[in-house]
Amino acid sequence: xxxxxxxxxxxxxxxxxxxxxxxxxxxxxxxxxxxxxxxxxxxxxxxxxxxxxxxxxxxxxxxxxxxxxxxxxxxxxxxxxxxxxxxxxxxxxxxxxxxxxxxxxxxxxxxxxxxxxxxxxxxxxxxxxxxxxxxxxxxxxxxxxxxxxxxxxxxxxxxxxxxxxxxxxxxxxxxxxxxxxxxxxxxxxxxxxxxxxxxxxxxxxxxxxxxxxxxxxxxxxx
Length: 222
What we know:
Elements lengths: L3 H19 L32 H4 L12 H67 L8 H19 L2 E3 L12 E7 L8 E7 L2 E3 L2 E4 L1 E6 L1
Parallel strand pairs: 2-6
Antiparallel strand pairs: 1-4, 3-6, 4-5
């Protein structure tokens, strides 16, 4: 059973709790010596009785964010970080555009060099093609042997292969003379033909893609 001192302390604590409950909410203060709260520990140096109607007006106002200590420096640091990010993004975008332009330029140059090398090699084959055509042109269709027919098939295969890589004969006969593609070696007068018409292609001209591989040697009327 609790002693007299213990009973007195209990009665005193009950009395204080009863008086505290009778106070307005703004004046209540609950203190538990055994309670420990997280956060900053504070102590009350003085107390002030406040009328409940004036409680809101007396309550301390929060400090605006822009006036809090350290927020100006943080805002400045954040603005600097945004500015640096924008600058880096601009540099990256410009560098990426330069890289794409350089890659496209290199691809174009490489393709041009490839076409130059290919046209040089194909041009050296044209005399061989001319000899094929002369030899086949001297044969009569009804007198062709199996060997000669085989040679003709090889010639056709060669021309089909060249066509697949972009080589095409000009076939100038019957077209209007164009010095960009034709080389006139003979001029004839013929009232039955129009002016500057190619009468005969004496040596075939060839195109490689959009480039003249060899001009046609032609006979031109009028």
